[in-house]
Amino acid sequence: MRTGANPITTAIRSWVLRSPGRLASGITIMVAVLYIARLIVTAVTGAENSGSDVRAHDADTSNTSVTSTPAAAEEVTETAVATMSASSIGRSPATAAMYYAHAFVDTTASPTQWAVALSRVTRPERVNDTLAAARPTAPVSILGPTRTLPGTGTTGTTVEIDTSAGTMTVAVTDTDDGWQVDSPLPTLDLDDVAPASPPTTAPTTATATTTPAPGTAPTPERAPEAQSSSEPVPPAQQATSPAPIPAPVPGPIPIPELDTPMPGPIA
User: CB–CB of 167/97 below 8 Å?
Assistant: First the structure.
């Protein structure tokens, strides 16, 4: 039993198989139609994609320039640098310069701690005795944020920091380890800075002895008054006081009268 054939495919197959030329022309027509359709689709969608790509590229470029430019010129304060990690100190010229100024005016650190802190933003051999002699001994305060000077180059930058002892000018350079302070290392003019006052001690509570002023005689202490004769003498004084001796009476010595005769022969 034969099944019914599709009339459309049967007609196409008979039309193609009866003439090889028709087969080649049919394939050519199909390829041409597909090529034209591809051109139309590319012309419509390609223009939109190219425009969006250009806009996206411009946006990326502008974002890159906006984010990179402020990163290099971002000003920082002393408070921000004091809480910053050691790995973030050399990320920009401003952070390196402010950290150097913050460590340089620190009078509470020991000489070793002071040298180690400065060595984080410069080479250790630069922190020598000459720089230690220029270390402030009186408190110096930083008055504001950093001020990066424009047009100082891509590898070298100058940053100014206002302090109570004047303006510190810090020259920094971009190195493999981040931004580093150049030599000679900056210092401050400490002529107008008051020296540190010695610590005051609290007054002692010990009783001070009074010393008479020169030329004045000391006032004698008042002697206790003698007790009057009318007052009774304490028993202790009665026992210790000696008895009075009677005065001798002038004249012949009286002969005592005896009841019994005196021993011996009577003349």
Answer: no
CA distance 159 to 81: 15
Nearest to 168 by CA among 72, 74, 86, 78: 78
| E-assigned strand segments in 22-152 | 147-148
Are 168 and 188 in contact by the 8 Å Cβ rule? The answer is yes
Is 4 strand, coil or helix?
Answer: coil
Helix (H, G, I), strand (E, B) or coil at 134: coil
* Predicted local confidence at residue 128, as pLDDT: 93
- What's the longest Cα–Cα distance across the chain? 225
Tell me, what's the pLDDT at 204? 46
Q: How far is CA 133 from the centre of its chain?
A: 22
Rounded Cα–Cα distance for residues 105 and 82 (Å): 13
pLDDT for 87-117, tens place per residue? 889 999 999 999 999 999 999 999 999 999 9
Please answer whether residues 105 and 170 qualify as being in contact, where contact means their C-beta atoms are separated by less than 8 angstroms. Answer: no
End-to-end distance of the chain based on CA atoms, in angstroms? 221
Note the pLDDT of residue 183. 85
What is the length of the chain? Answer: 267
- 3-state class of 167 per DSSP? strand
Res. 151: pLDDT tops 90: no
Note whether 178 and 93 are within 8 A (CB).
Answer: no
pLDDT top residue among 21 and 258: 21
- The model's pTM is 0.49
Q: What is the DSSP string of 105-129?
A: T--SS-HHHHHHHHHTSS-GGGS-H
d(CA 90, CA 177): 7
